[in-house]
Amino acid sequence: MTGILERTAPRDLATELPARLSLTPKTTLAGQLDGAWWPYSRDLTAELPPLAAALDEAWGRITRVTVNPARWPVVPHAVHTAGRTLHVGWFTEQDPDKLILLSYTVGRWDLLVIPPETERAAAARLMAAAAVPGSVLTAGVLMANEAVIGRGVRDAQRQETGWESEGGACMSPYGSPMDRRALPLPESTWR
């Protein structure tokens, strides 16, 4: 399979940076996801070694990874990391926003994959939501919810900017705009 790699970080940088992970705490509550992963790029060859290294201590040796090829321009058959090989498979039936990790000895884990181009605030919300123990929300539902939340945040920022630029800005007694936090509180709050 050939394709153009869409990257937000150069390959060399992605392999040197630690994996951005949020994992569910160890509990008896089983949920749809075991956490979230926010890669730096869409290059599995560069991204999987730091992920496997970060999970080795917590989950044991990862041997297989499966993805949906819709989110990854190139899906290699194998990725070499730390003297071993991760076997990579793909399934179009798998949720495109999920990565499945398998270990011969320990089991299976499902991680939400946060797109590398995601803004920090959105990624933080998604990482927190995916790490809730016992959550019934799937990767696709979390991504759809975040799209709605992100749209609401952007609309609110746009309205605030419009209000400020249309004369709604707080004015000082001297006729210049000022920050609303500098306004005196009403007398009823002094008591």
Task: Specify the number of helices.
Answer: 4
**Quick one: biggest sheet?**
7 strands, mixed
Secondary structure category = alpha/beta
The overall average pLDDT, rounded, is: 81
Would you report the number of β strands?
Answer: 7
Indicate the radius of gyration in whole angstroms: 22 Å
- Tell me roughly what share of residues is in helical segments: 25-40%
Low-confidence stretches: 1-7
Describe this structure in words.
With 191 residues, this protein is an alpha/beta fold. 33% of the residues lie in helices and 18% in strands. The chain has 4 helices and 7 strands; from the N terminus they run αββαβββββαα. It has helices spanning 11-16, 44-59, 120-130, 139-168, and strands at 21-23, 35-37, 64-67, 78-81, 84-90, 98-103, 107-113. It has a 7-stranded mixed β-sheet. A hairpin with a 3-residue loop joins β6 (98-103) and β7. The longest helix is centred in the last third of the chain and has 30 residues, at 139-168. The chain is elongated and about 60 Å long.
